[in-house]
């Protein structure tokens, strides 16, 4: 049965993950009537199948690793983790995959929630098909924002669907630890899930295609240090290895590699990239290619469409929740300004309506042991961008605060300095606990703080943050 019903709003947001919620929050704060459409759980991928459950799985792993490095505490934590307790805590982080609290938040900001699949049906028009099959047409006076995120990419292997492979969703929501787990991939999801499930009792085999190693988009030493730690933890790491075929035989996964190896496991996780969730959002009705990443300007407006915005993963700028939320704040402000008739948006570099930080100032943390945290450009990225730069490297273990943090602390820091402007273009930290340090680097990069000024930002002693002093000294003295 199909029911026709029309509703007019200032703004319609497709997707109620953190990005869509933040767009709606900003447009509502500006006094614009806003509808938000969601086909699954309000709160999106991050809340239920990505950031929150994955970090809930990893936090006990990293806490135990830190404790094992401290004399006086190490002997108390030699045993295995309580996997059932870790999974139960993870379930609490996801609200047991119920979105009541998130729905209350949407209602609290005064936005209207429409449950169902949202699809463009022409300019400024969104058709919502509810779970019961009824349809409702929403119209937007000012803007439609596509905030539908991304999904796991699966390789084109015959019969893969019959194998029922894990993606990041299954890896973060599994009810028990598989005895043996194959992880295919070398990026963030692959190394984090290998870290988590190895510590929670699985025997993990990590297969990485090509010779670039782990975390290929970060500084090379980051992937090398994570690889060494995973191997020492018991992960069977094989680089230069691709999966040629995969089957499930009597419940057992059998993967055959391009080298002819046959690997058996209880589950197989493919962490081999992401694809945009734009295949069925009606892009064809407005002259765009279904299933494509959407190209946007710095106000997050889709090229060639003065009413359409793509925010978060859908625009492929930075597939990170925090960066998507940053974009959402920019997009919400831009939509509100245009709706109020502001003639000239503050869209220049670092303006209120420009996502400038998407260009060379993106922060990221990989929650492995050791942690990897970066902000801005790697040395290779800075050189490719045409900057005349120099890398400064420091052994983090030589910093007094590191020895306080853990016995035998192993880590490394790199600062990439622009020699023309004498500002920091990028920073990478590898070591236990460095995730909580990266915001200082982000401020230095985003603020384009001169090296001469950073000398006066005194790091407290004895903390790991004192690495900033060591980096600056190394830059001055060499």
TrEMBL record:
Domain Pyridine nucleotide-disulphide oxidoreductase dimerisation: from-to ranges:
362-468
Keyword Iron listed? The answer is no
The protein's required cofactor(s) are namely: FAD
Name any one GO molecular function.
oxidoreductase activity
Stretches assigned to the FAD/NAD(P)-binding domain? 9-321
> Which keywords has UniProt assigned to this entry?
FAD, Flavoprotein, NAD, Oxidoreductase
Task: Check the record and name the Pfam families matching this protein.
Answer: Pyr_redox_2 (PF07992), Pyr_redox_dim (PF02852)
Tell me where on the tree of life, at the top rank, the source sits: Bacteria
Please state the Enzyme Commission number of this protein.
Answer: 1.-.-.-
Q: Which SUPFAM superfamilies match?
A: FAD/NAD(P)-binding domain, FAD/NAD-linked reductases, dimerisation (C-terminal) domain
The similarity annotation says: Belongs to the class-I pyridine nucleotide-disulfide oxidoreductase family.
Entry protein name: NAD(P)/FAD-dependent oxidoreductase
In which organism is this protein found? Streptomyces parvulus
